[in-house]
Structure formats: C-alpha cells, structure tokens
Amino acid sequence: MSLYYQPSNKMPLGGVLLFLLGGVLAAAVLAFVYIYAVWYIPFVYINFFICLGFGLVLGGILLLLARAGKLRSPKGVAVLAVLVGLAAIYLEWSVYLTLLFNTETTGTGRDADTSTSFSAALFGDVLTHPAAMWAAIDKINATGTWSLKGATPSGAFLWFVWVVELVIILGGAYLMASSQADEPFSELTNEWADEEALAHPIAYAHDAAQTRASLETGQFRTLLPHVAQSAVAPFARLKLHRVANDPGCQYLTLENVTPKVDDKGKASESTATVVQHLAISPAAYDELKARFGTAPVAAASAGQPEAAVLK
Q1: Which residues cross the membrane (predicted)?
Q2: What is the side-by-side order of every strand in the sheet holding 267-279?
Q3: Contacts of 71 (CB under 8 A, 6+ apart)
Q4: According to the model, what pLDDT value does residue 300 have?
C-alpha cells in the first residue's frame, strides 16, 4: 500500500462528455466576454489581466466539471483541458476576426468614427474556415491592429504577445483542472473526500524533509501547536481529507505558511507544501482532529501563556 494517495486514473465516459461539452460551452461564452472586453476597453495595459482572468475562470469551470464528472486521471484530465483550452483560443480568434471584418469607418480625419457589430453568419463562416482564419491572422501580424506608446506591434513581437496569451489560457485550464483529478477519491463509495483545514495552526516545519520522514513513520506527536509571537510569524497549516464511510480514505496535508504585510498594510501569505495526501489511519485522523481541530484559546484572562493552556 502506498504511503500517499494514488489516483485510480478512471475516466467515466459520462464525465468525459460532460467535461468536453460543458468546457467548450464555457469557452464560447468566455471567448465573447474576453474579446468584447479587449475590443472596447481602451487601456491596452490591462489586457494581460483580462487574459489572465479568462484563463483562471475557464480553469475554475473545468475544475468543477472534472469534480462533477468524477474524473480521477490527472494526465487524462490535463489532455482534455488542453483540448478545451485550444477550443477557447480558436473561438476567441473567431469572435475577434468577426468583429474586425465587420468594422465600418465613417468620416475622415479627426471626424472619423469606427464601429463594429457581431454577425452570426460571418462568425459561422469564420469558424468553419480554419485555413482562411490562419491566413487572416498571418496578415494581421504583418501590420498589427493596436498601438502601444505610439507604435503598432507587429511581426515577431506580436507573435510573442499571442504566444503569451495562448500559454495563459492553456495554463489556467491545464493546471486547475488536473489539480482536481489529483484530489483524494474513495473508490468504495464513489465520492470525493471532504477537506478540512484544522483551526489551530501548527509549528512551522523548518526542516521539511525531517518533518516528512516523521509523519511517514506515524510520528504525529512531532506536530506541535504554533505559538504566535507576531502577526507575521511563519506557521504550518494542517489539512485533513476524509470520506466518512470509507475507513481507507483518510489523508493528511501539511503546508508551511509565511504571512506577509505590505507597506499599505495589506495582508497576504505564501505557502509551501511539506506533505500532501499522506495516508493515515482513522485513529490518527481522530487524534489530529482532537488536538488541532479547535482554534487557540486566548490565555491572557487566565494569566497563563498560550503554550501552557494547550497542554
């Protein structure tokens, strides 16, 4: 038996179809939103963040579809996610070219006014002619269509911008969807494990390798409560994964957390995984839940340090 959770790599046909159909439908809607936002928002500098939002939202939807379809193969889901991501890119280019081809300019000089509208018939024509679409993209690359600091990007630089766009969209779809497929799943009860982040922080694992070795040998008593010295003191967070009706589906994840506060007082944190999805027994699960499942109690009223109260 493996020390860590191992996905079964099962891909139910119904789940695959749900993922592909739902993913392409979501990609189509997001493609319209993305292109219209890029087209009508005049600030080219925020296009990167709009693109990032496209990739993350698509990835989030694919994550939910992978969960709903009970897809347990990270590699299989990754392939499906890339296919949906490519469909999203194809669709957003189809929408963009439709708007571009349907552009009309009235007036001249300073009085010139450019407008466009969406044509379903033109969109269908663009969508069903990939070779013509590629020729149009290549022609656009030679001249460019938008300006940056008075210059119109074209050629190699514009290809680079488009490749970055592609990587962001595919990356969001790939990373988020495949991460869900790697989550603990009970083959006995056919359901995903529930995840709970225990309320009491754990002492920071300064030696991650030693902590990992201790936990792998069942030395859970080496996990100690975190005693806060300051608001930005590093600590560890313990997560438990469980399917209640499957005693063989109990897992532990431990991550180091480093809180940060910027110059404006905004708090954030960075995390680093120490152990992920380590198999534990029901008894170990109950022990850890009892020790760290409750938030630390303020000890000031009792006149005792927090560490004493926790014993």
Answers
A1: 12-37, 43-65, 77-96, 156-177
A2: 194-197, 235-242, 250-261, 267-279
A3: 10, 11, 12, 15, 16, 19, 77, 80, 180, 181
A4: 39
Range of the domain at 268: 188-309
Please tell me the distance from the alpha carbon of residue 145 to that of residue 56, in angstroms, as a whole number.
26
- Residue 115 backbone phi and psi in degrees, to 5: -140, 165
Say which residue the tokens 């749900």 belong to.
18
- Locate 17 and state its tokens: 């179809």
pLDDT at 42: 72
Residues 102-118, mean pLDDT to the nearest whole number: 64
206 & 106 share domain: no
Q: Same domain, yes or no, for 44 and 108?
A: yes
Q: How confident is the model at residue 7 (pLDDT cuts 50, 70, 90)?
A: very high
144 is a domain residue: yes
Indicate whether 219 and 129 sit together in one domain. no
Do 117 and 193 have their domain in common? no
Helix axes 155-181 and 74-101, enclosed angle (nearest 10): 140
> Is residue 91 located within the same domain as residue 201?
no
Q: Using an 8 Å Cβ cutoff, are 38 and 50 in contact?
A: yes
In a shared domain, residues 179 and 73: yes
How far apart are the C-alpha atoms of 28 and 23, rounded to whole Å?
9
* Structural domain includes residue 3: no
**What are the CB-based long-range contacts (under 8 Å, 24+) for 22-25?**
22/61, 22/65, 23/58, 23/61, 23/62, 23/65, 23/80, 23/81, 23/84, 23/87, 23/173, 24/84, 24/87
Specify whether 131 is located in the same domain as 209.
no
Q: Token digits for 194?
A: 């529930």
As a whole number of angstroms, the distance between CA 16 and CA 20 comes to 6
Count up the domains in the chain and report the number. Answer: 2
Read off the pLDDT band of 276 (50, 70, 90).
very high
Alpha helices in 9-113 (DSSP H): 13-40, 47-68, 74-101
